[in-house]
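ok so for the tutorial part 2 we go from a plain amino acid sequence to predicted structure tokens. step 1 is just haveing the sequence, like this:
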Amino acid sequence: MARRMALVLGATGGIGGEMARQLTAAGWMVRALTRDSARLGAADGWEGLKGDALRRGDVVGAAEGASLIVHAVNPPGYRNWPQTVLPMLDNTLAAARASGARIVLPGTVYNYGPDAFPLIDEDSPQNPTSRKGAIRVEMERRLRAAAEQGVRSLIVRSGDFFGPRAANNWFSQGLVKPGKPVTVVTNPGAPGVGHQWAYLPDVAATMMALIERESDLAPFARFHMGGHWDGDGRTMVGAIGRAVGRPDLNVKRFPWWLLSVASPVVPLFRELREMRYLWQTPVRLDNRRLVRFLGKEPHTPLDEAVRATLIGLGCIAVDSAARSPEAHETARAT
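step 2 — the prediction. this is what the tokens look like for a chain of 334 residues:
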């Protein structure tokens, strides 16, 4: 039996890399298109192709023979979304038309506005209040239109990413500092406001479980993940404290004021500030459709997921990680 082949755009990123690893583990051939093939580890076993998701010929050529295209590519640091995001998707659509592959898109809550809050299902109205949200709505509109012409797609929406190999997210850029021991957590949320998180290995496992049900998927399929719900804005902080053996870990507020002051000259700060509303009001994705379809959602316990994340980010030494929380407490008391 011939091995199935998947093209992954964004394999050097968080969800793209996790999908590439899980596809490989499941027996798929993985082809990764990247502008810097040197960033792909030789041990990963992927076929690395040098190319640019903004060049249609590169994407169409790389997708030859693929039955799946993971579209996990985004401009780094939120830069140039209007100029790059839609052209990259159009190139993926062209590649899917040529190869017959299904497109897999990691989705977000950016599509939705206050009229859909606080609990959002797959058919909730999409009236975003941000520029990135409007672009996300247009991305999905193009995928839906393409599905009517035979181009299949799968969208899996989830909360804020965190994971051992994910460096470009709120967890690793806001709550903790990669490569440094955790002595304080910076919390972007407001007291008592819930927030939704998604452990990247679970997101990839969910996508894999859906992909294996290809014959049961609609041409334009959409699912929401529940992930980890931090109901009071303190649950994630508590898990970090337990992981490092410091339940009394100091917490400070995220300096939103700094983003406001620096936004005119720092594009990243401007883009982050635009998404502040997701930390000021509870916004939760409803995963009942996913659970009905799969039977259950892949779910790593929060403490296990946070511990693995901190080890991967270099915030906990491996020898320290092997010690139990009780051992940490004993060491601190002596």
